Amino acid sequence: MNPQTPLSPQLLALDWGTSSLRAFLMRDGEVIETRQSAHGIQHLPQPGTPGYEQAFAAIAGDWLRQWPELPIVACGMVGSAQGWKEAPYVRCPADIGTLAGQSVAVPSGLGPDILIAPGVLFDEPGELPDVMRGEEIQIAGALLDHPAWAARSCMLLPGTHSKWAQIEDGRIVRYASYLTGELFAVLSQHSILGRLMPAAAEKPRETDEAAFELGLSVARDSRPGDLSHQIFGTRTLGLTGRLPAASLADYLSGLLIGHELVSGLAGAGDLAQVPLVMIGAPSLCRRYAHSLHFMGRAADAVLDNTAPAGLWNLALAAGRVGGGHR
Amino acid sequence: MNPQTPLSPQLLALDWGTSSLRAFLMRDGEVIETRQSAHGIQHLPQPGTPGYEQAFAAIAGDWLRQWPELPIVACGMVGSAQGWKEAPYVRCPADIGTLAGQSVAVPSGLGPDILIAPGVLFDEPGELPDVMRGEEIQIAGALLDHPAWAARSCMLLPGTHSKWAQIEDGRIVRYASYLTGELFAVLSQHSILGRLMPAAAEKPRETDEAAFELGLSVARDSRPGDLSHQIFGTRTLGLTGRLPAASLADYLSGLLIGHELVSGLAGAGDLAQVPLVMIGAPSLCRRYAHSLHFMGRAADAVLDNTAPAGLWNLALAAGRVGGGHR
Q1: Which CATH topology does B178-303 take?
Q2: A to B CB pairs, distance under 8 Å
Q3: What is the pLDDT of residue B3?
Q4: Which chain A residues are within 8 Å of B182, Cβ to Cβ?
Q5: Neighbouring residues of A306: CB distance < 8 A, sequence distance ≥ 6
Q6: ipTM, two decimals
Q7: pLDDT at B201 over 70
């Protein structure tokens, strides 16, 4: 690094998922510059290692020509069995030290190797197993910035496959995934329910709060097994005119998020004693915050993308950058 | 009818759904001859009334030339808003007299009008509304052949949109639909879960009973809201090697049927006192019977297609055929 340039970066951090690649130049734990490309691992310019190298060179080649010894870390599906190099899952309980210790290095084709973080596996007898890859780094980012949550907290990462993770002593001790976002998408796009819903692309529109809360209330009052009947209700609420067609998607969204919350909150331990932290895209977090409020609960904090902080934390734990907490 | 022909039919009964049309020549409540065509209401030779007339003439034209005054009744989606002529839903409680009284007639283009049965609507304040169209006739068929069930029974019709109907005094007093079959289909075909499952078409195969029962047991032990986590388990059971790829569909099937049963049995009233009758395709009924047994319950009877008997019952109640019970 050039000591004459106070803003020389100390880390190149990659959040490399299925459908996109984001690159962050970082210094002192802060992002200096961000780039994004569509070269997720399922959308590479060509298959295999040459495709990864090409995608990497396209997003970061000039940075590495300028700073050829910049350490590089990555997280996400780039470390999956279908990724650039597999970083096998580590088991719960896992902390940032476990993640750093089990990261794998792959030659970047430019400058230093890339250190790829593993995902986290929950696999206990008598329980359904679970997997995450990428969310563990977001959690590590939240914990870097808010060390008080390390002692004990519940981290909720809403999304296509929402995660509810229990944190103790800085470690992810258990977690559960919910297929909420994907269930909404496949039901809206591929089931009979979608026939009554106006195409989402037709117009951007406001959420029908009453329809959304009807879904939440139906979820809240559920008995075990009721969900597929309540999903069918999306159709019958439309057929009977109780909800307008434009509001059916909001009922279904409230129903599915509501079910996730009912189960997630029941599994989250004593939430009166434990901070509940939400991490995710602001618009989705607002929807979940509304839902939590409806269920009589509030998130203690809502964080936007914590992946860069988590990758900084990984680089710290791996000795790739110096210093303690920023 | 020709008195010299002892087997002259007394009724032409049509079960006309979305994807197929079945025609039954009947006498004394029994089917003499069955025909089937692919001209469901979404697969007509041309749109609108000409398409219905053409499909009807193709399947039954020669019958009507031979017996030009044969009464004709129909049930199913042919009476929906997208059908030949809409027979608006009747509300619960509904019996065969209600259905006959609210049937609508449409000119067949050949011989007599066709009497089309309405569907049944459940629509009570504070509950999700529900609709059926076709199943009410299958229920009427079961009740014609087994009048003892009219006093009180629970009728389970498994399928794409399973129905659980409560019968009292010969009437459908309430019922609930479950999207079980469609949920299985869209998750298998359109979600991330399908990526781990071998294509169903690759080979016909035996059910993995252990995987199916794992799904049932997970469903049985559910708390409210758990389903979308347990659905995600289809993926993680495969990724962790706990189930082979070929068995993941059986886990998912057991899980979804199990959830339906947990909810349906809880809503079915005091089933120790009430006969539980299952109506449907034999292979699917075997799967449900297995699941009921796993839940500690048995069906008191399992019936194959009762639509012809139900259409006979409709014709009786409408005065289109003579006599009481066969």
Answers
A1: Nucleotidyltransferase; domain 5 (3.30.420)
A2: 154
A3: 47
A4: 191-192
A5: A138, A139, A141, A142, A145, A279
A6: 0.94
A7: no
